[in-house]
Known about the structure:
The structure is a single chain. Helix 8 runs antiparallel to helix 12 (264-296). The protein folds into three domains: 4-86, Helix Hairpins (Orthogonal Bundle), CATH 1.10.287; 163-299; 315-346. The chain is mostly helical. The N and C termini lie far apart (77 Å). It has 14 helices and no strands. The chain is extended.
Amino acid sequence: xxxxxxxxxxxxxxxxxxxxxxxxxxxxxxxxxxxxxxxxxxxxxxxxxxxxxxxxxxxxxxxxxxxxxxxxxxxxxxxxxxxxxxxxxxxxxxxxxxxxxxxxxxxxxxxxxxxxxxxxxxxxxxxxxxxxxxxxxxxxxxxxxxxxxxxxxxxxxxxxxxxxxxxxxxxxxxxxxxxxxxxxxxxxxxxxxxxxxxxxxxxxxxxxxxxxxxxxxxxxxxxxxxxxxxxxxxxxxxxxxxxxxxxxxxxxxxxxxxxxxxxxxxxxxxxxxxxxxxxxxxxxxxxxxxxxxxxxxxxxxxxxxxxxxxxxxxxxxxxxxxxxxxxxxxxxxxxxxxxxxxxxxxx
Length: 347
């Protein structure tokens, strides 16, 4: 096997395979930022996946190494042992320096203490000297506490949910210009949601254990069916940086072995990724139902225009082929008409 090909994919010097986990992910030795480690693993898995068809053996080797790096560096105990093997010293944590407390005023009866000067007492006016409430000028009254202006109406008080936005984004709207296309998308989304919920039996609870002989094949079957359905689905689920990416990354490695070796932190991340996938598929299904109801209320002319525009945007190659065939027919017809015109006038 030519390992230099893998090095060229990941930007490593030739002849350095297999590298250590930190060099494989492009991290500083001893890096302990779990989010950064997960991000680098996702980026490199996305890069290697492009070469699965042309270099299957090298891609499998690279994915296995990336999975090992992810499992090792995100588990504190495994990372500590691995750093000790590489000779990386654990970072020393310095105690925070607290600011010095302010010194209290010492009483003047203590030895060697400076004399404490007390402020003179304020004169207390008698009842006869105080002005009546009606004679106090408005300028001498205390200022009222300013009331903040009300928040502008029409603005969202909370940030938009990226998962819900992805369920209604531009890629989610492609290919649903007709009622038939929406019905097909709804059926596929329901099937995906059903399989995803079945997958939650193993991923919903981070503390659940997996029976390797009985439940292992079922987990692999569910993941493979989901990956097969996503081939004809919009790029909303399972891509790098999207919900379900960690879940579907299990299809690229030895699923049962890697799943059983996950630490509690990794199982919690996997559970959150599964929850985000359920949220996205449910939101996309509800969005498709709204689009279907809106399409039913439109007149047939608007439906025709929408279907035509969708064909131009979603399948430009088909439109270009139809235009080429039309231009060819026009050219043939003009040639035939010209020959027919010459024959008529020649007689």
